[in-house]
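Re: the 171-residue chain
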Amino acid sequence: MIKKTIVEKALIRILYSKLGKVVNNWFRRRRNKKLLEELPFLRPLNWDGSVDTSYDYTWTHLDNFPRGWHKLIVKYLREVKTVLVRYGQLNKLIIVESKEKWGEARIYYSGLDNSDCYDEIDEIFNRMSAESGKTCCVCGKKAEYQTLGWILPFCGKCIKRTSGRNCKIEN
């Protein structure tokens, strides 16, 4: 067996780290293109609401949430899409901000010109926020614990990997 020098090991680490990033970005772009074909309102826009012509599919509004919530959020966004299609508002919805707040997923939006559509979408997003607060932000299972300080929900398995104080969620 040939021993590798320190320089060779360092070069291999650099190569694999850059290669790893390239491969990861390729998969992310591919996933985001498919996602935006189904849910076009997840595409980030410029500050003035216009479409960014240099957008390269590296991120969507879904990426602002922990991985454990992605399936849950996409489920509710599909409901939003059906409401938007029913009212003819699909191309008008603009997601202004998407974030985690107080241990729940929050999506703020504008651009619609139908109040009935607003009411239905608000109800869907309220259900999404409530359910995300009861879902583990790491794996997507039912949450049993909640961290204190920066509030996030965790299942029994994932809470062991976190540091800091936590408490049991009362149902």
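The mean pLDDT is 79.
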